[in-house]
Amino acid sequence: MAESIAERITNIRSNLPKSVRLIAVTKQVSVDTIRAAYQAGIRDFGENRVQEAETKQAQLQNLPDITWHLIGHLQSNKAIKALKQFQWIHSVDSLKLAKRLNTIAEELSCSPNICLQVKILPDDNKSGWTIPDLMSDLTELNQFQNLNIQGLMAIPPQGLEDLQTLSVFETTQKLAQEINQKKLSNIKMQELSMGMSGDYNLAISAGATMIRLGRTLFGERRIK
Predict the structure, then answer these.
(1) Quick one: CA dihedral 186, 132, 49, 160, positive or negative?
(2) What is the DSSP letter of 76?
(3) Residue 86 contacts residue 70 (beta carbons within 8 Å)
(4) Least packed by Cβ within 10 Å: which of 62, 142, 162, 209?
């Protein structure tokens, strides 16, 4: 008999270190399934797209203690909606986007939690800072008083061997340490958002504090 969502969630959470926050990725997952995950104890939900999240959030307003995480690429023209809908934005991938979010956050009187998306290896399918570009942008990022810059997000390229994937995660962790050593007033590298269904155990071994699981929790159930 197939495991229920609640059983999957219980099994995974029982094996996670207490330091790791489980974010259930609900891209193309139905509202009823999200409710089932909530009943099983999940409070952190991740969405890839602002528009899809908006529809679901409207139907889940009676669950007020959900924390919503935006984990997909954010277009500048969706920045206002994103700041109104999400408490966390993991995928801040450029200085230009960070600057826009900071300006809007001031107008909205909010202080979103932010992760800076880094691209440790070249990958045409992913956005993000290269390490040299991020290091050179830190001084300016540190000026953005309305953003709670809390850590880094990393997504390894597809098709890597486990050791290569692990190396990406370990490099991300070392980069966070290097940034922390600069003792910047507005940038705290407390969070490492890395690890998905296929590689989360590698990410945890490299110091991940937030993992983003979709298929592992929900199987291949998908809505159009």
Answers:
(1) negative
(2) G
(3) yes
(4) 62
Is 150:113 a contact under the CB 8 Å cutoff?
A: yes
Place of tokens 């994103």: 82
Count how many Cα atoms sit within 13 Å of the Cα of residue 56 in the half-sphere of its side chain: 25
CB-based contact 114:150 (threshold 8 Å): yes
- Number of other CB atoms surrounding residue 45 within 10 Å: 24
Yes or no: say if 141 and 95 are a contact pair by the CB < 8 Å rule: yes
Answer for the pair 144, 99: CB distance below 8 angstroms, yes or no: yes
Residues in the chain: 224
Enumerate the β-bridge partners of residue 212. Answer: 23
Structure tokens at 58: 């409207």
* Per-residue confidence in pLDDT tens, the chain, 224 aa: 467 899 999 999 999 999 999 999 999 999 999 999 999 999 999 999 999 999 999 999 999 899 999 999 999 999 999 999 999 999 999 999 999 999 999 999 999 999 999 999 999 889 999 999 999 999 999 999 999 999 999 999 999 999 999 999 999 999 999 999 999 999 999 999 999 999 999 999 999 999 999 999 998 755 44
Residue reference for tokens 């290896």: 121
